[in-house]
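Render RNase H type-1 domain-containing protein in 3D.
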Amino acid sequence: MRSRGLPWEYQHKTWARVTGQSPEQLHAAAKERPGCLRAIASEPLNTQVAPKFTLGKKMTVLVSHTVSAGLKVKGGHWPSPQRFLKYQAIMVEQDDVEIVVTNTVNPASFLSGSMGEPVIHECLEAIEATCSSCLDLKDTLLENTETWSTDGSSCVISGRHAGYVVTMSREVIESGPLPTNTSAQKAEITA
């Protein structure tokens, strides 16, 4: 089975032409994401391969999604910090790459055989909906509440000891021992 890479194009006069197929594959996390996030992941891969053909000249990258805005605003939600820095270095910080949002349709999208309704959406909203864990979760203060503090620890003093405590300002609400094989991190989480 032949693997399919990412297509890339170059602009010749007023025509954008496909010049080849990049052997690069999107990583597994990007393949499962919506088009906006796949565009953010695939653009740096293509931009890294293109200088072989442009011989280091200034490039204009045509994308169908607001890639640079998505990376600047919401990019940190999805890729790992290493990938985020890589994407940012390639797409935002390079002087010889200009990213232009276009409504040009990729001819490869017609290969599926069906001409469905066009997907119209706001990329930043789609990224927010995909990357946020709880859409209905709001940050609001509760009135007339008690402030509780928690602590968990694990130490070795004449044997291994682990425990947790939940307190108010001057009162212990709950405390207890934990199994002796409990790590300090697990004790904090338990508390």
